[in-house]
Amino acid sequence: MTAKIAYDDIEVGAELPAQTFPVTRATLVQYAGASGDFNPIHWNEKFAKEVGLPDVIAHGMFTMAEAIRVVTDWTGDPGAVVEYGVRFTKPVVVPNDDQGAIIEVTGKVAAKLDDNTVRVDLTAMNEGKKVLGMSRAVVRLA
Fold first, then answer.
1. Is residue 103 within 8 Å of residue 66, measured between CB atoms?
2. Which end of the chain, C or N, has fewer beta carbons within 10 A?
3. What is 101-112 written as a DSSP string?
4. What's the pLDDT score for residue 69?
5. 68, 66, 78: which is closest to 122 by C-alpha?
6. Which run of H or E residues covers position 47?
7. What confidence score (pLDDT) does residue 1 get?
8. How far apart are CA 56 and CA 85, in angstroms?
9. pLDDT band at 137 (very low <50, low <70, confident <90, very high)
10. pTM of this structure
11. Which residues contact 29 (CB under 8 A, 6 or more apart)?
């Protein structure tokens, strides 16, 4: 696959389509099974509270994976991501109800680099709080 976005058509400041990602307790159980991360802070409310958390929290790597989807959906090619890194700043608390939590992600082209690459800065929010810091991806465009 190749990115569907042409490097020459993109300007610094271009905004990627924002997305929201719902997270429920069922989502966390599914992710735990797929990732092998069965830490009880991600599924056991009693344990999470005993270790000082407000409730069960989403896996950091799950949150990171949801955020990069804004970029991969924009390019049309997950293989276009050359680099990706974040800092985990706040946990995504997932209540045990029918709603769960929502991760809201926006992205903006922050710089045009060499070799048809751009740096995209992402912002991931939950309940008005930034949950990922320094969330940046380098992406190779067509």
1. yes
2. N
3. EEEEEEEEEEEE
4. 98
5. 68
6. helix 45-50
7. 75
8. 24
9. very high
10. 0.95
11. 43
Beta-bridge partners for 56:
none
Q: What are 35's two structure tokens? A: 């990732």
Task: Give the whole-angstrom CA distance, residue 76 versus residue 66.
Answer: 15
Cα separation of 88 and 25, whole Å? 20
What amino acid occupies position 104? E
The token pair at 134 is 């320094």
Give the sheet arrangement for strand 117-126, strand by strand.
Answer: 15-23, 101-112, 117-126, 129-140, 81-88
The two tokens of residue 119 are 């740096």
The distance of Cα 71 from the centroid of its chain, to the nearest Å, equals 10
Positive or negative torsion for Cα 90, 129, 100, 26: negative
pLDDT at 11 over 90: yes
Residue 98 is predicted with a pLDDT of 86
- Convert the pLDDT of each residue in 55-94 to its tens digit: 999 999 999 999 999 999 999 999 999 999 999 999 999 9
What is the mean predicted confidence (pLDDT) over 108-126?
98
pLDDT at residue 134 greater than cutoff 90: yes
Contact 139, 118 (CB under 8 A): yes
Name the one residue in this structure whose structure tokens are 């099974």.
33
